[in-house]
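Render this sequence as a predicted structure.
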Amino acid sequence: MSMTTVGEPGHMTRPQRPLHGVAAQFGTVDDLMAAAERVRDAGYTRTDAYTPFPVEDLDEALGMKPTRIGWIVLAAGVLGGLGGFFMQWWANTSYYPLIIGGKPLNSWPNWIVIMYELTILSAAFTAGLGMILRNGLPRAYHPIFNTPGFEGASRDKFFIAIEARDPQFDLRRTTAFLESLGPERVSEVEA
């Protein structure tokens, strides 16, 4: 990756580095929520917030759409339960039929425990893998870690970042907009 310099002739220039976005640091949840709503209302869509603990309704304040992972987990659970039923039905009626105590080959009440376990197992694995894939994990590094003071996001600071990939992103306008929200600090985030 090549670096270019910007500036006027005869003036000191600084290297132009790839930019991930701009981040604003806030001190309280109320300030963060007010800023998130203003960021959403301004039309920014490639945003994220970083907090030391879960903040209720923050995703809605940022304008994020609800995830469909719950429906996917439900479908996996239902398929797991049906898979458990048909596995036992096939084994007991076709592959290895045994008549025990005069019970019919298709004695489904005996299979409820296995069906339940496969329902839970399928749903749990789908939820875990879906969360990992949806969050883009495993990722040992993210550009937001370059933000000055970002270590406070795990203790007592709150951050909103607007990515450079956002269609409305303009470095000067976006920085000025974030500064108008009253943050403690606004920083460029290098990629």
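Summary. The CA atoms of residues 28 and 158 lie 7 Å apart. The radius of gyration is 26 Å.
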